[in-house]
Amino acid sequence: MFDLSVLFSANREVAVLKKNQKWTAYIYILPMFLFFLIFLVYPLLNTVKLSLYEWNGIDPEMVFVGLQNYKEMFHDDVFYKAFTNFAIYAALVIIMEIVIGFSLAYLMRRKNFLFNIYKAVIFAPVILLPVVVSYIFTDILAYSYGFVNTFLRNIGLDKLALDWLGNPDVALYTLIGITVWSGTGFAMSVYASSLTSFPGELLEAAKIDGANRFQIVIKIVWPLLKGTHFSLSIISAISALKIFDIVFLLTGGGPFHATEMPSTYMYDRAFTVYEQGYASAVAAIIIIFALVVTFIQMRLSSEKN
Question: Inter-axis angle of helices 262-271 and 77-107, to 10 degrees?
Fold first, then answer.
């Protein structure tokens, strides 16, 4: 005769085992959860809290001002200039890095020793520290003795010899060019990786059907790499939002705020005029913008999948 007590005992053991496994899982994720709270959630909440105070970052006394910092910020022309510069900077950098990176990867898609050397040379700027890049271009673009202006003067194009980093009309676009120079190698390597798994039979079929090289690239290769385009766009947008070192070292946000970015604007208010509360308000806006970008990325990724 079957003993029901044995069955009940086995069920109890299974229930206890599942409960223990559940608590074990919680214990495993606890360190990451604490890390998330301490190093992400708390700093974000503290930044929002500081944005409601007037504080110079030195004195222990903080004066509660509510939303006054936000009101001043939204009436500051430099704030809008910084975000306008960011929009121009991000849009042009994203477009140029994707187009140039894709073009280079496609042109050098075949395995060739010489092409491998070219790829290594193009990728090299990616691993350079921002301070090194800044030093290189400070010297190359110097108005009086820089290589670019010296070359232009030697070939009789004196009118094109500009103060590339000191002229408000061209300084932002000079920074964009420097960023594209230092970041295109990464985009090229990502596209090169994507092209290695590209279905070659599609290209052969297109050639048989009479498509020329331009049509193959525009109508077949480019559309099929939309996932890569999307990923690089998000990476470039986030990198653009975090841009600080290159701008700070080359122009400091000048001349006349021509290259001011949200990050340099925040830094200036925090450590030049010592308005930590105001700077925290700027940081809160940057955080909100970053969260919006992240949400859009996740939404588009889920729809794509």
Answer: 140
The boundaries of the domain holding residue 254 are 78-304
**162-213 per-position pLDDT tens digit:** 999 999 999 999 999 999 999 999 999 999 988 887 777 777 787 887 888 8
CA dihedral 276, 278, 279, 283 (to 10 degrees): 130
Locate tokens 């959860």: which residue? 33
H-state helical runs in 66-126: 68-73, 77-107, 113-123
Computed over its alpha carbons, how large is the radius of gyration of the chain?
27
Reported pTM? 0.85
Tokens of 277: 């509360």
| φ and ψ at residue 54, rounded to 5 degrees | -100, 115
Q: How many CB atoms lie within 10 A of CB 215?
A: 12
Domain count, the chain: 2
